[in-house]
Each structure stands twice: as structure tokens, then as C-alpha cells.
Amino acid sequence: MAVTIVATAKSTTANSYVTLAEAEAYITGRTGNATWDAASTDTKNRALVESTNRLEQEEYDGVQTTTTQRLQWPRDGLVDKAGNGYDKDVIPRPVKEATHEMALALVNGDLELKDTGLEGYKNIKIGPMDVTPNNSRRAGTLPTAVKRLLSYLRLGSSDMNVHTVRG
């Protein structure tokens, strides 16, 4: 069954932070977009929904603007790195761009959000057996570009700066 995007801020049925039209406008003219351009509408929609679902797993500062919205964004009580408050009625540009970046990486095959079960190992050799744990890999790790886009919005990461406006 084909996936339909619902990208309405504060919606009880939203499944994406961006529309396909927004993603197309963002990705057009970028290097590495040939696979995206060749992908079907359904594949692109699925990538946008999967990207949104992954971003939903993060913890963000501020609070949801309504108790009935399905997705975590929009949120209230946040400022950008220039100290300007984000509009509490719209999805902020960094969240949209992070969604675009992840969707493009998914379609290009550069990102796999599902774990294989081998993420905890750096090396597995079958005979004679040689197993090396991978202490640097964490399941579901966000791509660096996405971390940067969300740097002023995410909680719980020592490499992120979080800025909050409290009333």
C-alpha cells in the first residue's frame, strides 16, 4: 500500500515533518541526488516517514505546543543559536532539514536505521574464531549532519548545546 504524507504541524495524524514537495525543493540541485530523482514517489514518502520516525526517538528541549499533536514538533520554549525564539506553530527549519538529510541518505543507501545485530562487533572471524567488540558504534546513531542541524534542539547529548527560554 502506498504511503501518504501528512505533514501538518500539530496534527493528530501527522507522520512526517515535511511534505514531498518540500523535500524535492531541498534536495534538487544537490550532489548525490540521482538515486533520489530516480526513486518512486512511494519510496521517497517512505523515506520521509522513516526519517521522521527516527527523529521522534530523540529527546528535545522545550515542550510540545499541544497535548494532542502526534509528533514532537512543533515545540514551545526554544531559541536558535542567535537567541531568537522559534515559532511554536511551525516545524523549525533545522528539523525539516534533518528530515530531508536522513531521507536522502536512506534512499541513497548511505544510512540503515535498522540494526543488523552485529553492531556491537568491530570484527568477527569464523575460523579460528576471533571476535572484537566495537565500542564506538551505538545502535541508531544519527548522521553527523543531522546532529549538527539539531544541535540547539536536542537534549541528552554531551556534544550538543541546548538553549531554553523559561517563562
Helical percent range? 25-40%
Percent in strands: 5-15%
- Overall pLDDT score: 82
Strand order of the largest sheet: 1-2
Q: What is the rounded distance between the termini?
A: 46 Å
**Class by SSE composition:** alpha+beta
Summarize the main sheet: 2 strands, antiparallel
Number of strands: 4
Tally of contiguous helical segments: 5
SSE order, one letter for each helix or strand: HHHEEHEEH
Tell me the radius of gyration. 18 Å
Q: Low-confidence segments, ≥5 residues, pLDDT <50?
A: 157-167
| Overall geometric form | globular
What's this entry about, in short?
By secondary structure, this protein is an alpha+beta fold.
Would you write up a description of this structure?
The chain has 167 residues and is an alpha+beta fold. It has a domain at 20-114 and 141-149. The protein is 30% helix and 8% strand. β3 and β4 form a beta hairpin. α1 (20-27) packs across α4 and α3 packs across α4. The model is unreliable at 157-167 (pLDDT under 50).
